Amino acid sequence: MIHYKSAEEIEIMRHSCLLVGDAHATAAKLLREGMTTLEVNQIVEEFILDNGGIPSFKNYNGFPAATCISMNEAVVHGFPGKHILKSGDIISLDIGVYKNGFHGDSAYTYAIGEVSPEVKQLLKVTKQSLYIGLQKARQGNRIGDIANAIQEYTEKQHGYGVVRELVGHGLGRSLHEDPQVPNYGKKGTGAKLKAGMVLAVEPMINMGVKEVVHLDDGWTVLTKDRKPSAHFEHDVCITSGDPDILTSFQAIEAAEQANANLSWSYD
Ligand code: MG
Ligand code: MG
Predict the structure, then answer these.
(1) How far apart are the CA of 105 and the centre of ligand 2, in A?
(2) Which of 23, 126, 164, 258 is 20 to 30 A distant from 250 in Cα terms?
(3) Mind giving me the DSSP string for 88-116?
(4) Which residues are in the CB-under-5-Å shell of ion ligand 1?
(5) Which ligand ends up closest to the CA of 107?
């Protein structure tokens, strides 16, 4: 069942969504070689709690941390530990904040130190594919229009692998609501988009094959060929006009550019 949000609810959600971006930016200012992923998680969790939020992912179906931290060939659902960040790593942070009854959910992949041109290109194309998908998030379109736009750009134009097993989702009072939002599919298929729907659109794009495997830690999803994978996610509200993106990368990108310990992936 799809839950449509009122204008008032959207403004409450926007607050949660912007808090997620600020949590990301707080981490982005501090990310550097030599840091452990546990430290990264701690920065994010403290920020969320200090701002009156609850980390959406902590204990969700038993997930062990506030932040999903997925390194390099990990696609999603990695969790913090003793891993020490080194130059050339990419680190995807997926952060959720629950506040005032609603969730915000946003993912971003960061490049530590110097990464190869191929990896930079993966990050750039994955982020671009998110915005290409979001352009289709318009009343009267269907889920398949978003999905197809992302797939065409990443698979057909760039030869990357689109993960099939993991998809975006509706978002609101629950972290995962209907409908599912795949990153692959046919134009003109799936649920019709209507004003008041909020969708988490989140391309998970592999440099190599689309297949994934599950690590025996019970959570982490890896690429089958162990090539790197990138993940970017925005929450968008369908309106009668242009897509209303509730999350923001603005503070994240500013922090990324100001942090000499990070490479960034856009022009
Ligand atoms: Mg997420
Ligand atoms: Mg999500």
Answers:
(1) 5
(2) 164
(3) T-EEEEEEEEEETTEEEEEEEEEEES---
(4) 94, 105, 107, 233
(5) 1
Type of residue at 182: P
Ligand 1 centroid–CA 95 distance in Å is 6
Q: Where are the alpha helices (DSSP H) in the chain?
A: 7-30, 37-50, 117-134, 143-151, 250-258
- CATH fold for the domain made of 7-263: Creatine Amidinohydrolase (3.90.230)
pLDDT per residue rounded down to tens, the chain (267 residues): 999 999 999 999 999 999 999 999 999 999 999 999 999 999 999 999 999 999 999 999 999 999 999 999 999 999 999 999 999 999 999 999 999 999 999 999 999 999 999 999 999 999 999 999 999 999 999 999 999 999 999 999 999 999 999 999 999 999 999 999 999 999 999 999 999 999 999 999 999 999 999 999 999 999 999 999 999 999 999 999 999 999 999 999 999 999 999 998 665
Query: Facing residues of 231 across strands?
Result: 204
**CA 107 to centroid of ligand 1, rounded, Å:** 5
Cα-to-centroid distance, 57 and ligand 2 (Å):
10
| 2 alpha carbon, distance to own chain's centre | 21
- Written as one string, the DSSP assignment of 71-93 is ETTEEE-----SPBP-TT-EEEE
What is the CA(140)–ligand 1 centre distance, in A?
Answer: 25
Q: How far is the CA of 266 from the centre of ligand 2 (A)?
A: 22
Q: How many residues does this entry show for the chain? A: 267
Q: How far is the CA of 230 from the centre of ligand 2 (A)?
A: 14
Tokens of 150: 């992302």
CA of 233 to the centre of ligand 1 (A): 6
Residues with Cβ < 8 Å from 127, sequence gap 6 or more? Answer: 230, 232, 265, 266
